[in-house]
Amino acid sequence: MTFKFQYQDVVRRPNPMATINPLKRGSGKVVSLQDRVDTLEKSASWNKSMKLWQEQNKKLDLSRMPKVKMFKLRYLVIDEDIQRSLDDKHCAVKIANVNVFDPALLQTAQCILTSDNKLISIDGQHTVSTIAGLIAAGMVNGVDDWREFEFPIQYIETDNLAFARRAFSLLNGKGKKKQSAYMQLRNSVFIVRIDKDLSDDDDVSVEKLVSIAEKNECFPIESFSGLNKYPGTFGNIATFKSCNEKEVELATSWHNEYFHYESLHVSTFFIFRDIHRAFNSAKLPVTETLQQELAGLVQTLFGDLGQYQESVTRAHRLWTVKRYGYQANWDDDAYACALLQLYKKFGGQERVAPNIIDRFDDIIDFFDEDILSLAD
Amino acid sequence: MYYLYLIENLNGRAGFGITGNPKSRNRDYVAGCGDIVDFKYLYGGSSAHVKKIENVIKNQYVDNVWKIDGRPLEWLNNDVSMDQLKDYVDTLITERHYRVELVTNDYNFTKDELDI
Q1: Ramachandran region of residue A300, left (φ > 0), alpha (ψ -120 to 50) or beta?
Q2: Cβ–Cβ of B55/A11 closer than 8 Å?
Q3: Rounded-to-integer distance, Cα B70 and Cα A204, Å
Q4: What residue in B sits closest to A373 (Cα-Cα)?
Q5: Domains of chain A, residue spans
Q6: Residue pLDDT, tens place only, B24-78
Q7: B95, A302: Cβ pair inside 8 Å?
Q8: Which of 3.30.428.10, 3.30.2350.10, 3.90.1530.10, 3.40.50.960 is the CATH number of A62-171?
Q9: What are A193-242's pLDDT values in tens digits?
Q10: Min Cα–Cα distance to chain B from A53, Å
């Protein structure tokens, strides 16, 4: 039996992402705060919000604005009903990490100042505890007693502990716009590309992965970005970062060779990460023939990996119901397993790592009949 | 067999959709349109490829999909003609080797052209 599906070339067109890729270089743009004010004034959401302020006659009460002052650390107390218990490992491994600690990155502690002059911490206990601990350990030249050490505190005068509790939630995520995985990746890339700073191994390694992907005309983008209509784009940064350089090279070069007209489906990373690891253990090469025949199979049976995902998740659902009697959660390992089982079913002759296809016994029997019938 | 249909409403607006049962789907349009409306072009083929083509249309025409209250419909804005949409679909099928072909023109549920 010879392999059934020959990959058929698809016309390659210039990819606009090659020029508009936001990671290629920084915008170099610095804008004034006026620019941001102008943006808000043109925003429908902002104007709607301002209308509500007017209707409710609400004004910004300047007396409630937080103040910043240097306080001796001995005045600071931590209300354990408001803040969490101290995470000693966080202080030791994250903040006081000997390789990365930099006092310039410390942030002010957040407190409330009550009418009986209690300075109650609502955020930043790990920072002030670390500073006090460093002084106590003799790590701060010229300072012997942490109690007398002055640290910048941002505070609000109030006796309302409910306010303090709400503030703690806000400062620790609830209500804060979180940095997306893409923004973190972008920071790492710009630190290396624009700032030429190679001091952080993680930044350097992320930039290297991005460079490999870009060489193969694949481009990380923000999830749900308008750029996702362009070929080679992908938004699942976590999976991308879970691959090593060889796996990213394999996945993105395969995509660029055979599916250069599509955005890059996240399963590409799962499939080639698993194939690379399993074949490596079995000391088998991932041959050009195998790559081309897998592309032919995907193209002929599914059109692309997006449609393959739809089919394989359905097959996995049916397979778990048959095998276990209930619908188990999706398992990303099924991507590569089912693909290679299909490859063998349709006559693929290249050697594949046995441990990758043994995982979900005969899952391919649960693919649609219009796909399986092509094997007859 | 799965189907992709290109539909034109009575004012000439182009739309599209996919179905496993074109006869039933075409009948469903009567209530919304207040008349029998033809599937101007009906394509059939592999379900995965038909679904893929629909996704590509939605992706490609993302800025030209007709939206009501921000909700995208399977109808296109007035400035995209049926001829443009058909050309796009035909080019996709040819260039990307999808196992989908034109089955019939001007199909509606009163016609018995399809054995379905």
Answers
A1: alpha
A2: no
A3: 42
A4: B46
A5: 62-171, 265-376
A6: 999 999 888 888 999 999 999 999 999 999 999 988 887 888 888 878 888 888 8
A7: no
A8: 3.90.1530.10
A9: 888 888 889 999 999 999 999 999 999 999 888 898 899 999 999 999 99
A10: 26
